[in-house]
Each structure stands twice: as structure tokens, then as C-alpha cells.
Design a protein that fits this description.
The protein is of the alpha/beta class and 299 residues long. It is built from 10 helices and 7 strands. Helix 1 crosses helix 4 and helix 6 packs across helix 8.
Length: 299
């Protein structure tokens, strides 16, 4: 794998990413943390030492990252949304932690010739994390559906927090399950509410009710508009009917990213690079652009 000697990847990142991928593909685990900013993640360092009794708020950006774009960056930087009838407190201005999540089994996408490998995507995700801010982790998961991802993530966080909590049990209150917010584009939201990815429409309704209900997994969705994405009108109509009630219950929130960012796509980057044009560099961060060039991706 080609890489510049000045690459900002931390020592051992590539070998750890490869080992994580192999464990996942061998069925030895369903989720692997490839990078955390410190040993106490998902807590912030100050939270860990002082104790935090309320649930951690964790955003999850799940994508193919082939490659990460400025649209991914905008979504990852987005802030939590509180109930419309309540003021958002200072503690809710931002998430406690952020997670960039790569699925090795995507409900509609698989590796094709010319794609970045999973390890290369994980490396680019790390580079993206450097532009997001503090307390961002990178992970890989073997689960195609969001409901399944949420189940695995909750199990992971339960074990992770318990292991971190043990030394400070006397000073920290009862453990709370983290509140997960999934960040996605409107095209992905349509897939989440598409019956073809479930055993039946009834099964979809049951699973999504559990996924988004406060008395279930208590997840929320923040969705960015993507007006340039073409979606079958009938599929979009059925999905809208399915998720409207969750919008009304404030389990799904819509946000606007900039006009430029909402039109960006990984496909656009790959096609433009392959065409030999240079304007693709404006679609990604400088670190990701340098990585694509240094590793000869998408040519």
C-alpha cells in the first residue's frame, strides 16, 4: 500500500485495521473499534474523571466512506436536536462522543473493482476524524441494517462502559445506556424504511418501532436533505408514509447542510478522479485528497 512518509496516520493503524477486518470476516466479532482518541472513550476525559450520571450522547455516522466527502464532514459535525418545546441545555449543545462506522455488509452496496479497500476506507475515516473535532472514534461492523447495528452497538457500549466504570464504581452513579443518534442522508432514510430490506412490512414496522421508541432502543435519526439524489417516486412515497409518525414524535429530525455539501457524493469523487480531472479535490478534505493521490485510488 503506497503512502507518503509524512502520512498523519498513527503508528500501527494499518495493521490494527487489517486485524480488525480479519476478525470480523472470520466471524470472531461483530464490531471492532479501530481507533479511539484515548483509553476512556466514549467518555470525554473530564467526564470520566469527574463522573457523568446522565446518559452519554453518541452520534453514529454509518457510511461506505468510498471516499469520505465534505458532506460526510458536515453531517459528522452536526449538533444534537432537542424537543421543539424545550430549550436545549448547555450539556446538550454537542454530543459526548462521535463514531464513524464502516459496514462490511451494506444492505445495497458491495465491493467492486476500483473501489478503495476496507482498510483504505478506515484510513480515510481516521483522516476525516482529524477535521471533525474531539472524541471521534472509528469502527467497523458486520451488519447491514440500522436496527441490527443499533443492537450490536448497544451491546458493545454496555460492555465498554461497564469495563470503564468498574474502577470508579464508588464515585459514579448507575450506568445509563447511551443515547444513539444515527446521522444519514435522505436517500439512506428511504432505504431504512423500505420493506425490501426486511422479511415483511410488518417485521419492518415492529423493528423500527423498537429502534426509535423511547421504551425500546431509544435511538434518534438526524437526516440531511439530498435534493440531487434520484429516488423512485413510489419507493419514496411509501417510505414517507412509514416514517412520518416518527417525525411527528420527534424521533427523526431533518437538517440542512450547505447547498454545496448536500450535492456531494462519493460516486462523484470516484467518477471525477477516473476522468482525470482535478476539481474532485474540492469535494473532500485536504487530508483525504492527499491520501487518494498518494495511494492512486479511483484512477
Amino acid at each position: 500500500m503506497r503512502r507518503s512518509p509524512s502520512s498523519p496516520l498513527p503508528p500501527g493503524f494499518t495493521s490494527k485495521a487489517l486485524g480488525s477486518l480479519q476478525r470480523l470476516q472470520q466471524g470472531l466479532s461483530t464490531l471492532e473499534l479501530v481507533h479511539t482518541p484515548h483509553g476512556h472513550w466514549p467518555y470525554r476525559p473530564a467526564q470520566f474523571h469527574m463522573g457523568k450520571s446522565c446518559p452519554l450522547r453518541v452520534s453514529v455516522l454509518d457510511s461506505s466512506f468510498n471516499p469520505p466527502t465534505l458532506a460526510h464532514l458536515a453531517l459528522a459535525r452536526s449538533s444534537p436536536r432537542g424537543p421543539t418545546d424545550q430549550a436545549v441545555s448547555a450539556s446538550e449543545i454537542d454530543y459526548d462522543a462521535r463514531l464513524l462506522l464502516l459496514s462490511v455488509r451494506n444492505a445495497e452496496k458491495s465491493l467492486v473493482p476500483g473501489d478503495a479497500t476496507y482498510v483504505q476506507r478506515l484510513e480515510m475515516m481516521y483522516l476525516l476524524s482529524l477535521d471533525i473535532g474531539n472524541n471521534v472514534a472509528v469502527a467497523i461492523i458486520d451488519q447491514p441494517t440500522f436496527v441490527g447495528k443499533s443492537t450490536i452497538l448497544h451491546s458493545f457500549f454496555q460492555s465498554k462502559l461497564a469495563s470503564l466504570h468498574t474502577p470508579l464504581a464508588a464515585g459514579m452513579g448507575a450506568l445509563h445506556r447511551p443515547k444513539l443518534t444515527f446521522l444519514l442522508g435522505s436517500d439512506t432514510l428511504v432505504r431504512v424504511f423500505s420493506p425490501k430490506f426486511y422479511a415483511s412490512e410488518e417485521e419492518m414496522t415492529r423493528l423500527l418501532q423498537k429502534f426509535l421508541s423511547p421504551d425500546g432502543q431509544d435511538c434518534q435519526i438526524i437526516c440531511a436533505h439530498r435534493p440531487n439524489v434520484t429516488i423512485d417516486e413510489e419507493v419514496e412515497r411509501r417510505a414517507l408514509n412509514a416514517y412520518r409518525k416518527f417525525v411527528d414524535r420527534e424521533r427523526i429530525h431533518f437538517i440542512d447542510i450547505s447547498d454545496d455539501e448536500q450535492t456531494l457524493s462519493s460516486t462523484q469523487v470516484r467518477v471525477t478522479v477516473a476522468a482525470g480531472k482535478d476539481d474532485w479535490k474540492r469535494l473532500v478534505t485536504d487530508l483525504v485528497a492527499n491520501y487518494i493521490i498518494e495511494n492512486g485510488l479511483y484512477v
